[in-house]
Amino acid sequence: MFKLKGYQQRAVNTLDSFLSRCKQGETVEQAYSETLKEQNLPELAYRDYNFEQVPYVCFRIPTGGGKTILGSYAITVAASRYLETDYPIALWLVPSNTIRLQTVEALKTPDHPYRQKLDLAFNHQVLVLDVDEVTQIRPQDIGNKTIVVVSTLANLRVKDTSGRKIYAYHENFEPHFAKVPNNHPALAKLERVEESDIQENGLSSKEIGKIKYSFANLLALYQPIVIVDEAHNARTSLTFDTLRRIHPKLVVEFTATPNTSSSNGSNILFHVSASELKSEEMIKLPIMLTEHQNWQDAIRDAVLNRNKLALDAQKDTDYIRPIALFQAEDKDKEVTVEVLKNHLITELKIDEDKIAIATGKQRELDGINLFEQSCKIEYIITNQALKEGWDCSFAYVFCSVKQVSSSKDAEQLLGRVLRMPYAKRRVIEDLNRAYAHLATPKFSRAAQELTDKLIAMGFEEMEVASFLKQQPPTSGQSDIFGGEVVAPVKQQVSIVVELPAMPDISTLSVEERIVYQ
Fold first, then answer.
1. Are 218 and 92 in the same domain?
2. pTM of this prediction?
3. Domain hosting residue 312, numbered range
4. If we measure between CA atoms, which residue out of 351, 354, 407, 357 comes closest to residue 385?
5. For the chain, how many structural domains are there in total?
């Protein structure tokens, strides 16, 4: 069974404490205030977003900190400490279809840590569904299974609900509403059949005004737990209106970069620093940055960097296949995906079967498990497609031929090389670091740009600087946080003379023997 890191367990305990307070009669505002005091954190005003005492809190976890596993734990804590059901319904919202598919696959896999926690907590009575599969929910599943539905926020976030499957009338849901008593408190909140539903579903006009058999209404009837991944994408008034429409019992956000400045800012209940992630062996730090005057040198050194790490990895106790991640330029620029791939093959003699392209149109990573020892992929070329949701701790080297200042995707791409393989410190020191190669004519600008991006990824400005003290830069490179370049140490040339046999040293003194040996 997966074991939580120390800060992850504290996050779970914090949610437990907060929800216990809410359940015991404290207002959400009081519970929020007291839970902050419990952690010796400064008091913050709670924002209710007009949710009328529905707990709505945020966990700030930097990139690489394991936000998704905490989502599974949040469901189990909510069920045991706050909800009045043994088998809750959870709506898990993610920012993109890529992440949606990855999350569904992980939650459906029996031996995956996300699913293991749910199975253990709910006696293996767990039903995980993609949003496109919700018509599979049967009336007997409600209250007898924990149901987790994964969807993008975009599927729900609309002003006009007509034409969206999640709000659409579907006859499969009719049995769910057949035995709902007339005095059920949620009935007044449910959407009703309208003229547009009749036209779309071929209903008779006498159905107008009756409860619409939709998945959104099913959620509103049973008040789900809502898990929001990458919650910084969910701060608009339309988002809050959308969530109120399904009447959640609880909303828990996870993000590295919460918005705290506006009236729609997040209610941060728990925060962990990147320094603690490093000490818990979750992420690779420092990030070693090398600047290059042209893109060819950047690519060459990234390949050499990866090859050196591959040799180091052979000495590690675990299987590690270091991967280099290349960010190409857009189609109207010089170094496109095709140009970069051709350079790897023709100039650097990389076997084509070791290269995968991951763009909007070329999805060569689909269906591939990069952690398998039989996988040959060592180089991945992309432009923007990996900016969210792609997760492989074997990625060590990030190389961008774009100007950093013009690439708003560099932040997410850089985050792809931060995760530590198997979440534990490696034997070889170089395998505890991440590497960035940039083709930019001005190093100081590149360093500042990437430092700013790390701060945007949830790193504190002060702790970014402190990483310099923990990991000195390697020869010929500069620490990303502005450290001095360490000049390479000149190696003394050794002269080796091979003898046919060990000479007789019995006549030498003890001191001479030590020197000789």
1. yes
2. 0.76
3. 282-479
4. 357
5. 2
Does residue 4 fall inside a structural domain? no
* Residues 87 and 213 both lie in one domain: yes
CA–CA dist 206, 209 (Å, integer): 8
Note down pLDDT in tens along the chain; length 517 residues: 578 999 999 999 999 999 999 999 999 999 999 999 999 988 889 999 999 899 999 999 887 888 889 999 999 999 999 997 899 999 999 988 878 888 999 899 998 888 999 999 999 999 999 999 999 999 999 999 999 999 988 888 766 555 467 888 888 898 998 888 888 877 888 888 887 777 767 777 888 888 888 899 999 999 999 999 876 767 778 888 889 989 999 999 998 878 777 778 899 999 988 778 888 888 888 788 787 878 999 899 999 999 999 999 999 999 999 999 998 888 888 899 999 999 999 999 999 999 999 887 788 887 788 899 999 999 999 876 555 556 789 999 988 887 654 334 455 556 778 889 988 999 999 999 888 888 765 544 555 555 655 666 556 665 555 443 222 323 445 444 434 333 333 333 334 444 455 555 555 554 444 334 4
- Distance CA(129)–CA(316), nearest Å, equals 38
CA distance 371 to 443: 34
Three-state secondary structure call for residue 363: strand
**For residues 457, 458, 461 and 466, what is the CA-based torsion angle, rounded to 10 degrees?**
-100
132 with 209, same domain: the answer is yes
- Start-to-end CA span in the chain (Å): 51
Same domain (yes/no): 257, 288: no
In a domain, 484, yes or no: no
> Please, where are the H alpha helices in 186-294?
195-201, 215-222, 237-245, 274-279
**Could you give the C-alpha distances from 138 to 113, 144, 173, 182, 350, in angstroms and in order?**
26, 10, 8, 21, 52
